[in-house]
Design goal:
The longest helix is centred in the N-terminal third of the chain and has 10 residues. The chain starts with a helix and ends with a strand. It is elongated. It is 12% helix and 39% strand. A hairpin with a 2-residue loop joins strand 1 and strand 2. It has 80 residues and is mainly β. Strands 1, 2, 3, 4 and 5 form a five-stranded antiparallel sheet that branches. The chain has one domain.
């Protein structure tokens, strides 16, 4: 059970949850994410950064490659 659902379950059961924050991830198509823009950045022929702007907030994913230009990792979204 996610932390948010656990807090909600405790709240419904009458437990003291003052000061807790409930946050749930929403789908990329959720109306809270209207009009995102994406910027793709390349180093040579490799895509290295994807930056998504939602409202006035920018988030980035970083892609890394091995010496043979094979994709190795893709980071999570982080504030840019």
């Amino acid at each position: 059970m996610s932390d948010g659902k656990l807090v909600l379950a405790k709240l419904l059961a009458g437990s003291n949850v003052i000061g807790k924050t409930i946050a749930e991830e929403t789908a990329p198509t959720d109306s809270s994410k209207n009009n995102p823009s994406l910027v793709l950045a390349y180093t040579g022929s490799n895509l290295t950064t994807i930056t998504k702007t939602i409202g006035s907030t920018a988030y980035a994913k970083t892609l890394t490659y091995d010496v043979d230009d094979n994709l190795e990792t893709v980071s999570g979204w982080s504030a840019a």
